[in-house]
Amino acid sequence: MVGRSDNTHGLIPRARLIGPIPSVIAVMIALSVMAAAAALALSNLAGNAQAEIAGGVTVQVVEADRTERERQTALALDLLRSLPDVVQLRRVPDAELHDLLEPWLGDNFAADSTIPMPSLIDIRLAGEVTPARLDELQATLEPVAPAARVDAQSAWLGPVLRAVDSLRWLALGLIVLIGAISIAAVWLAARSAMAANRTTIEIIYMLGASDDQIARIFQRSAARDAALGAAIGFLIGLAAIAVLARRFGALGSGMVDSAWLLTGDWLAIGAIPFIGVALAFLTARVTVLNALRRML
């Protein structure tokens, strides 16, 4: 009878233990890294956008006659400056408004004086912008600027933020699905390895090897293969993130610029390969121990 020392590793061919797990783990880790980066970036984007538009209100003075429009705009500005809950006030310059509309109306629309342009006033209110506050502000402006239209900035971006939030949850769900598939792949590979080495396992078990010793052979092999796959997948995921960040950064959009990953986000992404290796290790151990109880 052999002792209980862990000298059984060489009796089971390592090549028959886990099979193609490195490539499977590499793909899963790469997808997880990209999905996690997307979820974190979308969270940052949504958080920054909500902070930016919190308390934001836009006043449009929609009047075809330029002189009357300017008169109402000036009166509206004077009135808004006197309100105690207005903490920030800015009239959007015509040049900035032209730049916003130029992609939609063409390069020469600014030279066409027949196109009426509304006056825009950006306001930041103290506290939350509610429908009641919007109605109150509209009623306050009505006597001096009947052509004014009051809208909450959150109403404009609300559908966008809801879509971003849906994409974020979709990315998180994808990470959970990838984790479940990875566990299933390791479980199937470990069971196949156990079946392929059944005769050898029965012999070394009869010679005195314990369940824990046999399980350690499989779990060490699973951890090594998973570590190799995780390292490769992590590098692939980082490369994909770099390429996508460069492409989206070239858009020059203010909303996209707020979707960069922070230090804590990178730490969370860096933990993904270690989590993958730990899952493969634990899955192999649990699978082998359960199989041994039924086999021996």
TrEMBL record:
Residues passing through the membrane, by range: 21-42, 169-190, 226-246, 266-292
Membrane topology type: Multi-pass membrane protein
Keyword Lipid metabolism: no
Domain of life: Bacteria
Keywords for this protein: Cell membrane, Membrane, Transmembrane, Transmembrane helix
Keyword Glycoprotein in annotation: no
Domain ABC3 transporter permease C-terminal, residue spans: 174-291
Any single GO CC term annotated in Swiss-Prot or TrEMBL for this entry: cell division site
Compartments where found: Cell membrane
Alphabetical GO biological process terms: cell division
Residue ranges that the Swiss-Prot or TrEMBL entry lists as coiled coil: none
Main location: membrane
Protein name: FtsX-like permease family protein
Organism field: Altericroceibacterium spongiae
